[in-house]
Design brief:
This protein is an alpha/beta fold. The protein contains ten helices and eight strands. The protein has an eight-stranded parallel β-sheet, with helices on both faces. Strand 5, helix 5 (152-165) and strand 6 form a beta-alpha-beta unit.
């Protein structure tokens, strides 16, 4: 790369559970070039005993966590839902979902998520449908959690069926997260965005993620750490960027994957403010985003 100026690394962390992380993680992410962090509602490691517990959690995501992130100059956004692990009790889930509309006008709310399936049960599917209806009625973006391990292929297919069965849902406004080698193609072929979650012990390693980028192309695809209270790495996205550079991907290709792609998807929400970074010219800051390509490369 001699004689060619390298752009500073910048990235958007589109899926991180920061309520479970320490403040040092905010410092490290900002230092590594993180320009914005997005936090989907998720399982706390235990089942909440009442809808009031979710009300307090939604307040944490929309009021308290943004203030903590702001101390490190990092814009914080969130998604709201009752997560799939706590969706088996449909009556309970309905009470929680009824709380969500009052939070949708909060300035950092991006949409409904991370909804989806855990064990692919009928009750989980019913609650998923309720979330999808809520998103459609309020014109919200959707972020979807797909099941783990042996249930992932079946669960992903069920999720796609639910989304496609609702004519109000536009695939380009939905991202299906935690895709792996056996599910990514069905998601992209259906017109949805796909998220690759970078975990050290499960889901997807950086090497596997870059393999998928090289096979399927970089359209409608992002990478995230989904860091939480388990074994996870808050800097997984910049680490994966280094893997892309090691394999010879250009700085522009890396920037597209870790900054421009999440920027393009998230900017469909009127609440998302495109971050100005060291790489952003005044002209870029003033221009509207280009429309995403409709044809996948690779």
């Amino acid at each position: 790369m001699a004689g060619k100026e390298l752009m500073p690394m910048r990235y958007i962390e589109p899926h991180a559970h920061m309520v479970s992380r320490v403040t040092d993680d905010y410092r490290d992410m900002t230092t590594a070039g993180c320009a914005a962090v997005c936090e989907p509602a998720f399982w706390a490691g235990f089942d909440r005993s009442s809808p009031q517990g979710f009300y307090d959690y939604f307040c944490q995501l929309t009021e308290h966590e943004p203030r903590r992130a702001a101390k490190f100059a990092l814009p914080h956004y969130c998604w709201l839902c009752i997560n799939p692990k706590e969706s088996e009790n449909v009556a309970f889930a309905k009470e929680v979902i009824a709380l969500i509309p009052q939070f949708l006008d909060r300035p950092n709310v991006l949409g409904i998520g991370e909804i989806g399936l855990n064990k692919n049960s009928r009750n989980e599917v019913e609650v998923l449908e309720l979330h999808v209806d809520l998103a459609a009625r309020h014109e919200q973006l959707i972020l979807v959690h797909t099941p783990h391990l042996e249930d992932k292929h079946k669960g992903t297919r069920l999720i796609l069926d639910v989304l496609r069965n609702d004519s109000r849902i536009k695939p380009e406004r939905c991202i299906i997260d935690h895709v792996e080698e056996h599910t990514i193609q069905m998601v992209l072929d259906a017109g949805f965005w796909a998220g690759m979650t970078l975990y050290p012990e499960s889901k997807c390693t950086a090497a596997r993620a870059v393999d998928m980028i090289e096979r399927y192309g970089a359209e409608r695809l992002w990478m995230n750490s989904a860091c939480d209270w388990g074994v996870s790495v808050p800097l997984a996205v910049p680490y994966a960027a280094l893997e892309m550079r090691r394999r010879g991907h250009t700085p522009e290709a890396v920037d597209k994957m870790i900054f421009q792609n999440p920027l393009r998807f998230l900017s469909q929400s009127p609440n998302f403010v495109p971050p100005v970074t060291l790489n952003t010219t005044k002209q870029q800051a003033d221009e509207p985003l280009a429309q995403p390509a409709t044809r996948r490369v690779g």
